[in-house]
Amino acid sequence: MEMATAAEFDQGRQRHWWNCIPTCLGKIPCIRSRFDSLQLDNDPRNVSESVLSRHLGLLDPIIVAATLISTLSWAAAADIKPLDASDKWSWLNVMALVAMTIVTLLDLFCVAVLTQQMYYLGRLVSGGPFGLDIAMSLFGDKNFASLRHIAIASFFVSVPTFMLGTTPMVYQQICPLGEKRYLAIPTAFCMVAMTLVLLLIMKLQHKVFEEVALKMKIMKQEEKQIRDIGHQSQKSWLDSLSFV
Fold this sequence. Notes:
Elements: H1 6-14, H2 20-25, H3 44-47, H4 51-79, H5 91-125, H6 131-139, H7 142-174, H8 181-243
Keywords: Membrane, Transmembrane, Transmembrane helix
Transmembrane segments: 58-77, 89-114, 151-171, 183-201
């Protein structure tokens, strides 16, 4: 029995019925571009460490934490129910439900945006010898960076919102009928105070980071000026030698 060649094997594979699926799905506008995939290129720079890979690595813990918080908030929102069979919602339940819904939406937005950006940047990096440079250009794009910063800010906003949303839930669990307010009120006060402390710490860290980033930017500008002055002096020295 003769062995089939590679061309005959490809022709036989193309005659199968499932090959019509990409053709049919390709007519849908929203997924048409998915069949024009980038080709893989085994460039050595794709597997080496780069500044872009370090930046993308910083997004991993944010995505994981946002996923966990969104799961917890949605589970908490699903458990919020009226106290009795009259289907009357207390203002504590409404506050908790609104807060948990906001947290879920913020974290899902964060996960979707950051995951999509990491996916697209990874595709560009592995797409060719110039993929790393193009990916770094896309990473610094104004619209691309703005969406990334909004997504990261959404996560950091969702954390204190989640803490505030759990406060009425804890109050309702401790004091469902209003007979243990002496215990529920101090507990709720401690949770609100801890949320304010967290906001203060986050604000302080962000302020320190901005100051250090500004200093680094000034140092880079000064280094560039010194380098330009050195190039100009070297050029003038070479011009004087050529004149002699």
